[in-house]
């Protein structure tokens, strides 16, 4: 098996987040996908070691934002390379709330979604959440950030909890 | 809900295919995703109305190829807008076979995968197949075709069975 084959798959970069009581958590993923149109459903794979997987499971809901090309190593690093166990990642940055009061970052994004989890599939290292979309809106006019653009232009790395991590 | 938000998600374009006995089937999807790295697993959502969903279910396996930018409306149309019920889509085009003798197209691609289905999730209009990757290889040096490139440069349409179809 030649793992470089996986680098030829395309994806965007997203932040998924949720709140349970006073705890709120979010992380960067490249695994958000629209699985059906009628009704609209999204799926997202989140590493079980990520605190966000825990919070989504308890909340039964998640928000997801589509990052745009104005994203920086710093704005992505806050959500991508630190743990919500150690800090409130939303502290000090512009934060929006959906109708269920789930938080989401409002900067460097070009769309946002709110989902109710309808099924959770254990796929080993990750939980795959299937979510019925309850809110969806484009935000601004930014260009969606692809994982490829992030790696080649922003020169960003991949955290080892990622579905697409291929380091040693 | 503003469905234009979904257009801001990024994806590649892929052909998934399978064989059961003498029947072979394949279709174009933009729903292939790497869900885990250790071990490597892919997921793919296929519309239940697509003959390919049937054949994958019976075969318990699928192949997936990553289309590259040399793809044309014609090469994509063969797999995207016709049904394997009516014709053998592999008839007359260069076809490769994996170790389980599952077919895959060998032109206009830059990577290929072979998966054994480990779980099938019914998500409504679509089946979501989770596959353990048994073979993976990059093919040639082509640039992966994104769904965005397909729509904006190749000027391609979206079949109504697609997860991302938003027509009326």
Short description:
The first copy, chain A, contains 3 helices and 9 strands. Chain A has 168 residues and is mainly beta.
Arithmetic mean of pLDDT of chain A: 94
Overall structural domain count of chain A: 1
- CATH class of chain A equals Mainly Beta
Number of strands of chain A: 9
Put simply, the count of helices of chain A is 3
Oligomer: homodimer
Helicity of chain A, as a percent range = 10-25%
Strand order of the largest sheet of chain A: 2-1-5-8-9-4-3
Order of helices and strands of chain A: EEEEHEHEEEEH
- Identify low-pLDDT runs of chain A: none
Alpha-beta content class of chain A: mainly beta
Shape-level CATH architecture of chain A: Roll
- Taking all Cα atoms into account, the compactness measure Rg of chain A is 15 Å
Shape of chain A: globular
In CATH, the homologous superfamily of chain A goes by the name: Electron Transport, Fmn-binding Protein, Chain A
Question: Which chains make the largest contact?
Answer: A-B, 54 and 54 residues
Report on the biggest sheet of chain A. 7 strands, antiparallel
Could you tell me how far the N terminus lies from the C terminus of chain A, measured between alpha carbons in angstroms? 15 Å
Strand content of chain A: 35-45%
